[in-house]
Each structure stands twice: as C-alpha cells, then as structure tokens.
Amino acid sequence: MSRQRREVRLSRPGKVFVGLTLALGFAAVNTGNNVLFLLVSMMLAIMVLSGFVAVGNLWRVRAAVLPGQIFTAGESGDLLLRIHNSRPWPLWLLELRLGDVRRTLTRVGARQEALVALTWRPPLRGQPPLPALQMGSAFPFAFVWRGMHLAVEPVDQPWVAPAAGGQFLPPADLGYQEMEGGQPGGSGDLLWVRERRHGEGLGTVLWRRVDWSLGVQGELRLPTLEREQAGQRQMLLDWESAALQRWPVEQRLQMLRAALDTVLEQGWAWQLRMPAGMVTGCGRSGLEHAWLLLAQQPPLPIPREANQRAPLPWGLRTAGQWLRRFPHPGGGG
After folding, report:
1. pTM over 0.90
2. pLDDT at 174
3. Which parts pass through the membrane (predicted)?
4. Which end of the chain is more exposed for a tag (fewer CB within 10 A), N or C?
C-alpha cells in the first residue's frame, strides 16, 4: 500500500489550547508579568514536543489491505487491514478511517503486527473503488491529528460478488444430476474438514484439531471430516444454460448467486461453469472461488465518478452567485 498526501489539522481541544496560548501571550505582553511569560513558554514547549512525539509515533508504520478478500454487493462486510510496526518502540492510539467508519488501536507492540476490521458496504459488483482510507493519530495530547491517505494496490483491491436477485429459477430449470455408486460422489473419498453441524454426533469430531484456547471466548469450533455420499445430488450451474440466455448479465449473475445460496443451505454438491473457469464443490467448499468467478465476469459495472474537485472559496462562490443575477448578452431581455 503506497502513501499519498499527508494531512494535519487541529482538533477541538487543540483549538482551545492554541486560543488559550494566544490569550496568555497577549496578556503577558500587556502586563509584563513574568509568570504569564513562563506559562506561555511552557505551553509553546508542550506544543512543539507533542508535534515531535506525534511524528515519531507514525514513523515506519505500514498498513496494507489483506489480499483475496471477497464481499457481496449491498451487504456490509469487514475489510481487514494489517498494521505492521517495525520499530523498537510501541505504537499508540493509531486511528484508521474508511469513509465515515473509524477504528482506533490503543497499542501495537514493538516489531509486532495487528489486524483491524473496517466495515464496508460495497455498492455494486466487480471492483468498485474504496472510500477514502486514512491512517493517523492524535497522540499524545489529542491536540493535532496527523495522518496520511493510503492508496490500495491493484492486487490488494477486494472483489465484490453479486447479491442474490429477486428473480429466482428453481433447481429443476438449472439442471441437476443424481450420482450413483461407482461414480464421483459415491466413492466415500474425503472431501475436506468442516465445522460440526448442529445436532451432529460427537463421534465424528477430530479432537486433535480442536482449538481449546477459544473455549474462554465462546463456543469451541469442532472440526469433522466430510466425505462423499452415495447417490449425492450435484447441481449444475451453467452460465450458458438455456434458461439464463434471455436475461441480462447482472440478472444472470444474481440468479447464479441465488442458486449457490440454495445449494449451500441444502448441503448439496454443485458445479459452477463460467466462461473464465469451472468450480466444483460441496456446501461451502470452493464457494469463495465461485463468488470470485461471478465477481470477475465481464463486463464489469462502471461506478459513477464522484466529483472530487475541491469546493471554491466562499468569496468566489458569492461573487459567482451575484454575477448570475445580471442579464447575459443575447440572453433575450
């Protein structure tokens, strides 16, 4: 993640502190009181020292968006960032901002890393630009906020899968297969290790893979082995299916996403065939790869370009409003 322009601004306590310093300075000059001169000197020294401490607090601190993250259009998710402190002293009161969302890290130890989750609600499918991402700190006295704008590298930009649309095709219209013995799905081969379902017997739990340290924070994650079943139903979700040809691209993607949600709830095996590739899975296995294929299907939606021009100063805006009141040459009266 590359760093762009820096930003420095006074907070409300900082404005009060600067105003009080100026007031005491004028009072010291008018009265010639040495005590007031001493107080003003101490306050100015505090401002200078806090500036040096704040600059050192952000020195050699790097932030990066974790690659490979997938979101759903119109649904809130957590954008994960890794904060790396490579210095031999800790980092204090680091603030991360993603648009209007703010998160504060109280402390990051020396030569340590931390993960921060910022809530993001992507507006559309594809790879829409992230809101303004900033990293800064008001340490140590919260007088001045110093930060920098962060630019996400293209390889780290998260992808957004389509949301399930209102139009839904039943599984019979998309096609399905019944797997028989001796065919894939009936051999009983190991598929993957999944979490234990509600009501499932404890005899299938892999107790050697249970993370007992999570017991204090909540319910334990109990992993179990998932194997292929005889006569297992496999849903075929084909982009070139005849039932989908009459729909536009975005609606077709939303129908396929709704079908994936259905097979996930039922626990069926499935196969997604897209122009960019094919994914075979069962339940949640391979689901993120399928979402990625749906998110990357061209043509990608073009986000509306926001007006990023800086607003005109108040004087120019007022002058422009007055000029509009005068009649223009050839304006018809």
Report:
1. no
2. 59
3. 12-29, 35-59
4. C
